[in-house]
Amino acid sequence: MYDEVSVFAENKPGKLSMVAEVLSKAGIDILAMDVADEGQYGVFKMLTVDPMKAREALAAAGMTTALTQVTCIEIPDQPGGLVKLANAVEKTGINLTQAYGCILERGKRAVFVVKGDNLPAIEAAVTAAGLTVLNKL
Question: In the chain, what is the straight-line distance between the N-terminal and C-terminal CA atoms, in Å?
Fold first, then answer.
């Protein structure tokens, strides 16, 4: 499992650059990001090299933050790569409540970040299906 950093911000121009600048000045690399529009407010969900340090830097800058556990699963970067993950989770009967992904190495590896009702069971199911759970990025 991995800690995802969430930042809650008013849905206005410049908020992304503000988050990126705070993390840059703190020397924190953003590995993946999902931006969700929730009406008047938005949520930036990020994987960073150092989630605790990222949260502290953002909070010190006056931003509302949270840490949430997610699972990062490596899948093949090829047609059908996501099917293996989806089928493994479906067999458990566990609902995924959040998911996003990115390519790690084009044509070879991608990572899919998921949150669900039972992360240990999701990790066990995808591991049994031959996929790799990443504990470090």
Answer: 11
pTM score, whole prediction: 0.82
Question: What backbone phi and psi angles, to 5 degrees, belong to 96?
Answer: -85, 130
DSSP state of 102: E
Write the pLDDT tens digit of every residue in 22-31. 999 999 999 8
Give the CATH architecture of domain 70-134. 2-Layer Sandwich (3.30)
The strand pairing partners of 24, in sequence order, are none
- The number of residues making up the chain comes to 137
Q: What is the largest CA-CA distance in the chain?
A: 44
Equal fold, 2-68 vs 70-134? no
2-68 in CATH: which number?
Answer: 3.30.2130.10
